Amino acid sequence: MTSKQRAMLRGMANTMDTILYIGKDGIVPGTIKQASDALEARELIKGCVQKESPLSAREALVELCAQLGAEPVQCIGRRFVMYRPSEENPRIVLE
Q1: Strand order in the sheet with 71-76
Q2: For residues 58 and 56, what is the distance between their CA atoms, to the nearest angstrom?
Q3: 92, 12 Cβ separation under 8 angstroms
Q4: Cβ density class 11-44: b for 16+ within 10 Å, e for less
Q5: CA dist 31 → 14, 28, 78, 82 (Å)
Q6: Strands 71-76, 79-83: parallel, antiparallel or unpaired by DSSP?
């Protein structure tokens, strides 16, 4: 992914609501399934690591991206954004 593509995705994520939360249990199979389903439906999702979580936002982002085959887009504070093109219905076209 180029820096121009990443910048476009960051701009799109600016107005998005956070839909994925990592809590005190860290990343569990249910979290991975939720993230995978959300990525298939939306392609671009924003997540947040709660204060009680044993992981930092960067660690959670790297681990989720590795398990889901997604691309990390942004990580600021406790929030992160990741992208994975949909297999069945791609909506976001990267230039």
Answers
A1: 20-22, 44-49, 79-83, 71-76
A2: 5
A3: yes
A4: eebeeeeeebebbeeebeeebeebbbebbeebbb
A5: 22, 5, 16, 14
A6: antiparallel
Q: What is the DSSP letter of 23?
A: B
Taking all residues of the chain, what is their mean pLDDT, rounded to a whole number? 92
pLDDT, tens digit (0-9, with 9 covering 90-100), for 45-87? 999 999 999 999 999 999 999 999 999 999 999 999 999 998 8
State the Cα–Cα distance between residues 23 and 20, nearest whole angstrom: 10
- Write out the two tokens for 12: 């799109």
* pTM recorded for the entire structure: 0.90
DSSP notation for 36-92: HHHHHHHSEEEEEE-TT-SS-HHHHHHHHHHHHT-EEEEEETTEEEEE---SS---P
Q: How far is CA 14 from CA 11, 31, 40, 78, 80, in A?
A: 5, 22, 19, 15, 11
Tell me the two tokens of residue 26.
Answer: 């860290």
